[in-house]
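Curious: explain these tokens?
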Amino acid sequence: MDLPVLAAQPTTTAPAAASAPAAPHLAPSQSDPLWWRSAVIYQIYIRSFADGNGDGIGDLAGVRQHLGYLRELGVDAIWFTPWYESPLADGGYDVADYRKINPAFGDLAEAEALIQEALALGIRTIIDVVPNHISDQHPWFQAALAAEPGSPQRERFWFRPGRGENGDRMPTDWVSNFSGETWTRTTAADGTPGEWYLHLFTPQQPDLNWNHPEVRAEHEAILKFWFDRGVAGVRIDSAALLVKDDALPEVPEHPGPGEHPNQDRDELHEIYRGWRSIADSYPGTRVLVGEIWLPEIDRFAMYLRPDELHTAFNFDFLARPWNAAELRESIDATLEAHAPVGAPSTWVLSNHDVTRPVTRYGREDSSFAFLKKRAGTPTDLAAGQRRARAAALLTAALPGSLYIYQGDELGLPEVEDLPADRLEDPMHFRSGGVDPGRDGCRVPLPWRGVHPPFGFSPANGAAEPWLPQPESWSHLTVEAEQSDANSMLWLYRQALRIRRAESDLGDGALTWHESPEGTLSFARGDRFLSVTNLSQEAIALPEHVAILLSSSPLVSGLLPPDSTAWLRTQH
């Protein structure tokens, strides 16, 4: 159907009526098996979304209070980072009990109610599982610590004697994903040094031994537990790391396919085929989404074969700089990787681990890599804001499903001046303070008002938010942005409304069009064209009959730098 011209124009005071209308939503039908191929999925980091009980920590009550906001935004599903019982040594990715909700967030009954309430609004629920490791407080690991070397309890993990005459050297020299060492030594019952245990992340996250049948059976039971409660999918953390080579060899300088001792082992595919069988046994399509960081396209695609995972996160696009050639290369490589197995691509600009787009795109080096993160890196927030707006439209027009990290729809910047005594991220501490950590993208959302906590907690809340919000965020609240036609929120709502209405958007084909150097232009179907200007000069738009949406106002009829326009090319 035709849509009105929605090109952004400069305004002095935006009227309330300018806010985008709610996207039409119906309760998801179990007979829609392909919903996941085009879905818009909103990531919720619970601690920072909304605080319902006033203790300064986001919770399920806060999410339930704001389900209407998510419906109005126009999302199809919400993905929760881990909500389970956890000591929170790594933001919940250290799970102590998969069948209990972290008491700081609520309880199981509240989670079950949330799943059904969201579904009634047309929003499915996706949850995180973290199969590579568990919390050191998990009953399994506590039993292993209390048991003797060689015991059945220790066989579920990777306990090994140390090297050297007194066993003082780690069993391997593997490098941790969080900097630092990958082995921690235990203390025996008599107080003497004992065996070492493996942890690719923090010492509070011991790796499980996926060669053990009990480990596999337990995680299959966990999937069934949550599918029975109505979740529509599972996002699998560190999905390529689960299986290790039993011999625990050192990492070769140039490992061949499947030869790395702790990454991308061929045995993983048997595990995920078993998980897919479980997912397919439930009514509706229950999706499996992998977090997979692999440079080899063919190895990546193997996880997306029809009997394994449905989709996998596309981290390459997220990490690329604001550069037309780089982004096109990533788009082409992504589509090429997915085509042989018929899987849809996924597109995302950030998540709870990554520097927010408004800040990252304003840097001289706008690419992302964990090893490059440093405190004090300058950024041009005005340029970052323009580019983040343009990137939002570019990404939403690409084929496949779209992920949005909470707060990106508000244009929140990274908070880079958090007090040192409030930081919690283990990446910061394990790097010796060199890495500023990920807390800056996890600061609680601003909902309303002109001073912190900006409605994150109830007015009578007794505690301040777990991370402090900048005073300067008063213009970035949902309340302020929903009535401002120039705001990031307005742009996102309009973009998702158009994406839902345009049958050629979401899953499907993409056709590149010739365009000036430093720009990206592609068609979706016969009537829709997306044009992004990443150059330093304004450009003329291709022939069109209407502008559906523009991230920046046109200047003398030209699309300015750092802007994207969506065009109707024919009636």
In short: Confidence is low (pLDDT under 50) at residues 1-26. The first helix runs from residue 60 to 65.
